[in-house]
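User:
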Amino acid sequence: MTIDRAIKPNSTEELSFSLPKINEFELENGLKILFVQKDNLPIIQLSLISGCGSKYDPEDKKGLANLFSMLLDEGAGEFNALELSDEFDLLGANFNISCGSDTVNLSLQTLTENFDKALKLFSKVILTPQLNENDFAREKRKVETKILQMQDEPDEIGSSLFDLILLGKNNPYAYQSLGYDNTIKNISIGDLKDYYSHYFLPNNSALIVVGNISLNELKNKLNKNLSSWEKNIFTPIEIKSNSISKTHIYLFDKKDSVQSEIRVGHISSKRNNKDYFSKHLLNTILGGQFSSRINLNLRENKGYTYGAFSRFNYYKDDAYFFASTSVGQENTANAVKEILNELHKITKGVTPQELDFAKSSIIRKFPSNFETYSQIAGNLSGKIIFSLPDNYFDTYIDNIKRVNLEDVNKTADDNIFPEELVIVIVGDKNKTKDSLKELNAGEISEVNLFGEIIN
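Assistant: Predicted structure:
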């Protein structure tokens, strides 16, 4: 049979999707549990989401939460770091810990037949981490080395500077979770122990469980292993968003750099605003996928870059919009100009064809976000962090379909601000500064690694 590739295949029937039932309950110590039963594979996925991310780092000890997360599994209970790792390996379990601005995350995937033993190890990490001085010194050296490496990576510098300058130094989201060389040195093992007792708490956490186990059996096992985790008083911090009145270009001089890293953006409305679905569709058209306006312009039409994108970046208590790309030094100003042009153009509206294509793309990809156990857990973590409604996933497709052209065009006008931008360039100033001046896009200031203006 010969297939004519020039003929576009017809769409199949309308997609319908519903997540399996989410069972929610709470242990006596305040630990919230979200459970989705899936029996098609003999696997159980655990994801602990603790709301003690790096936004709680003291001003002079940035990197504390991240160091804490690195040390959690460096020995727990009677096992040292190597023994603990071996125990998980013997069970064929996959265990990971990560730290972000809002949360510290512990994830475990194990076979159902090994769940009891894996859960016991998982609980030891939570309840009885060793947090000893030797492990702390070793992990601290790793962080210091990583910070030095990042200071030589233009993409890392660009993203770090953009957050710091855009969000402002009074906003804890402005700082990289890894910390800085002048703050890491201030952190002691005692600080980690205090962090553990004051922030890593059951009443500040939620546990997501996806897998092949019954609800009653799960409740019994969790009560047996985690009920002794003691709660404590926890007070969330207040985040104040920054404001930008006019476009300003910030240039970090990376001498002899072949490429320039470009970040362009502004503060945005938060995740729980009612226009979220409109913004999602808007950004899909503007810079959220390969066929979006920004990428087609900078990559396909101009050949400036291998890829360019935009995104609304959401924290629990703040948000911003940004566009990002990397281009040759000679195309720095041209690329910035085209990004600015696209931001201006999108405020004039999108076409019905663009909106229909964006809707189709989002709707048809949506079920694939729930194919694996870890994907389900990952999506449920968003429900926890942003306090999404219980029917969020079941109504997601309908909410996308409900957005009309007028909604998207109003959202563009309300959420894209081409005259109030922070533009961060990491590149060789001798090859870029003059051409950036010719843009007349805003004042140009040179900055150091800490976002401080140096001329």
